Amino acid sequence: MSMIYRPQKYKIEDKAKLPFIDDNEINEILREVQSPTQEQVREVIQKSLAKNRLSLQETAILINANEPELIQEIKSAAKELKQRVYGKRIVLFAPLYIGNLCINNCTYCGFKADNKAQKRTTLTDDDLREEVKSLEDAGHKRLILVYGEHPKYNAKFIAQSVKTVYSVKSNKGEIRRVNINAAPLDVEGFKIVKASGIGTYQIFQETYHHETYLQVHKSGLKRDYDWRITGLDRAMEAGIDDLGIGALLGLYDWRFEVLGLLRHVNHFEAVFNVGPHTISFPRIQAASGIEVDKKWAVSDDDFTKMVAILRLAVPYTGLILTAREPASIRNEVLQYGVSQIDGGTNISMKGYSHLEVKQDIDAEQFEIKDDRSLNEVMEELVDTGFIPSFCTACYRLNRTGEHFMEFSVPGFIKRFCQPNAMLTLAEYLEDYAPLSTKEKGYRLIENELKNYEDPNFKEKLMERLHKVKMGKRDLYF
Ligand code: SAM
Ligand code: SF4
Question: Which ligand is nearest to the CA of 220?
């Protein structure tokens, strides 16, 4: 295995200088605990319920627990832990595809260079403004911009698109946080993108398994495993301390990928003293011009178990689930640990401003299975007792990275996240919701208010909710 690039600025323990994904080590850990006892599994669950991070070995014990009774216990524990750590809030965002030009040949992706059926487009400035206006008119406040890998989509281009998005204001609508999912850049490039005011930079390793990585990344820059896996280290060096990692499930054994993700988390903590903000775990979906071996396809049962295990393994890392999954799966795993979802998703190029075109497989990266409108998603969340949130307060108050105190300050969720969720929900109810959602939403807010015992804080919150009703916007704690 080759040595990998590492920012020199940081003093790294000798151990962290080694390539941090060692396939043999992961395989060995999975083999060591192939048949865990009930006691072992329950012991790990208890450790996690006490809000402790799990080691790779402990996580492997949960991964290898196969008795239905134990799987149920894992899921119930994840549900409990999620409730304790995150409360009832679910953060909502929308993906926005900026361009589908791509020089790479990832076997699983409709944008791959060799796919001649894909209609290639890059949004012009005007297209982008139109898309953002449509998203704002639906009620969105948080976007993730997505790009193929192409010389045209360089750092300056990405930064310019971010600035354009922030500049669009439609009625009371505005985008308050722009995240990025794009190819890894060099440190200078990441600095340029950071200066445009982004939130999270996401790069998925796709598969942590070296051999599979080479099999599925046939050509192009992405074929270089080491350049990709060190991408977020360079982002960190450039000052972007809000990072998203991910694995594309279905390329290799999900058990291996879970431990790869955890190793990646450990790496950030060892080197930068802060873990990634989010983990994504998309399952491969049908796409134009792709053929993916079904050997490693992840069943619904394994997928839901995996989400519960991730929740228990890294209690403080956000888990993202997208509209690739159908509503039924989304609703189930929301219970076990997912903290962010997209809503009203349309990944066709220019799809938000041309809603008449539902899904066109040759003008999008892959098929989605949840094409409900944002309001339908919001209403279902409210019906099931979740508080949909468009909150962007932490990032705007610099509560990010090492200083991201969300989970280390006692009562943080209750004092900041939950009230901010209510305030952004109230904005949505005032500006975008149909009457039935509005009534249900305010009922939920009323009920939540009953949980606030501190009269001073409750008064402040009620005062701000009243101001939102009177037309004030963008209030947060
Ligand atoms: N081109 C950049 C890259 O590859 O890093 C940006 C990301 S790509 C547009 C977004 C993500 O979509 C990929 O990282 C991959 O995990 C996921 N993806 C690609 N093909 C997919 C498919 N057929 N089904 C589900 N997700 C897919
Ligand atoms: Fe290009 Fe990204 Fe698709 Fe690979 S996953 S073909 S890099 S857009």
Answer: 2
